[in-house]
Design goal:
The chain has 15 helices and 13 strands. By secondary structure, the chain is an alpha/beta fold. Strands 3-6-9-1-10 form a 5-stranded parallel sheet. The chain has a two-stranded parallel sheet with strand order 2-11. Strands 4-5 form a two-stranded antiparallel sheet. A hairpin with a 2-residue loop joins strand 7 and strand 8. Helix 3 packs across helix 12 and helix 12 crosses helix 13.
């Protein structure tokens, strides 16, 4: 007797559920790929940190912030008094990463052509003369802008285009910079003689602003030991520019849950004084709050931090951990704040306490 069509159908589906489906195998394969990518990212990150640690003593938060910005594809502003190792950190990073490196010592007499390059008259093999463009030091993957606040606004304008557009205009022609392109700038906060404060538009182009502090007693002892006994650490190159671009692409793939993204949005909105979403401390001490780039930085930096902690999703803690470095240079204080000595770091700390993690306060 021939089985009914219904019985054959049921038997076929019994076999389907007993044998792993193509879809489940595909999901399993994707999960394995994700785990491998996270593991590879963490290994690369730890390898770079280990090489930097051969030279830089302490400053764990500064090193972590710099690497987060690089993997996030942004520029870094390092602020601190002279002698704390800001320039040494950048130079060490240039030795660890297999990329072209340039250093520009900013001075008041530095001109845009000194950075960008210029057209010069060259004689051809045939005896003719023609203009040829000579590339300036900005044509590098990693650029150290030492004491960037010592250059005039005219020179800063050339840096502004490079940082935002990753291109420069020289000799009437737009010239693209190589990828990746990072500006790691240093500035001294206490010496104001012969300095020019960076315009807010340029500050906003920096992914992070990191404040370099003094070392502890144990760290200072180790610094003295390393630098006064004639020993020199052997630095190994860890990542190429192509590998960095690949890791940056992985960062963009990290998912962010809607409620976590909403939290980042509410943090940014809380910095806008005289608005419905402003935190009380913003209304009291701020003239202007963060731009949308602050929100972009929060998300990208949180994605990098999640990967460094072995996760392929962003948490509230990731957002909170990067908030100060991402927003401190994007808030403009009013006169009352300056008179009372209130800093942007203090304001951000209070906003993190005031803004709840749930999304009931603001609908977006």
């Amino acid at each position: 007797m021939r089985p009914s069509a219904e019985r054959v159908f049921v038997q076929d589906w019994d076999w389907f559920f007993k044998v792993p489906s193509v879809w489940s195998l595909k999901l399993s394969h994707q999960a394995m790929n994700t785990e491998e990518k996270i593991r590879s990212f963490r290994q690369s990150y730890e390898a770079v940190r280990a090489e930097i640690g051969k030279v830089i003593v302490g400053h764990e938060a500064i090193v972590e912030g710099t690497l987060i910005a690089i993997f996030g594809g942004g520029h870094v502003l390092l602020e601190g008094v002279p002698g704390l190792g800001k320039t040494l950190l950048v130079r060490t990073l240039s030795e660890v990463l297999d990329m072209s490196f340039s250093r520009i010592q900013f001075t008041p007499d530095l001109m845009p052509a000194d950075i960008l390059g210029t057209n010069i008259v060259m004689e051809t093999p045939g005896g003719k003369r023609e203009f040829q463009f000579q590339h300036g030091p900005i044509f590098a993957h990693l650029l150290l802008a030492d004491e960037i606040n010592r250059a005039t606004p005219k020179t800063q304008s050339a840096m502004l285009e490079a940082m935002q557009e990753k291109s420069v205009t020289a000799g009437g022609e737009i010239r693209k910079l190589g990828e990746p392109f990072f500006v790691l700038a240093t500035q001294n906060p206490i010496d104001q003689e012969g300095t020019y404060p960076l315009p807010e538009a340029q500050l906003d182009r920096f992914f992070f602003k990191l404040v370099v502090g003094y070392p502890s007693a144990a760290e200072l002892t180790e610094v003295l030991t390393r630098t006064t006994e004639g020993t020199k650490a052997q630095i190994n190159r860890v990542l190429t520019k192509d590998q960095i671009l690949e890791l940056q692409g992985l960062v963009r793939q990290v998912p962010v849950a809607s409620h976590v993204k909403n939290y980042a949005v509410r943090l940014v909105l809380a910095t806008h004084p005289k608005s419905e979403t402003a935190a009380p401390i913003s209304n009291q001490y701020l003239r202007f709050g963060s731009s949308p780039r602050g929100g972009q930085t929060l998300i990208l930096a949180a994605k990098v931090r999640a990967l460094t902690h072995g996760r392929f999703n962003v948490s509230f803690e990731d957002i909170q951990a990067v908030a100060t470095a991402a927003l401190r240079h994007r808030l403009i204080l009013n006169f009352e704040a300056e008179a009372e000595g209130v800093t942007t770091d203090l304001i951000i700390d209070q906003i993190l306490k005031d803004v709840p993690k749930d999304a009931t306060a603001v609908k977006v």
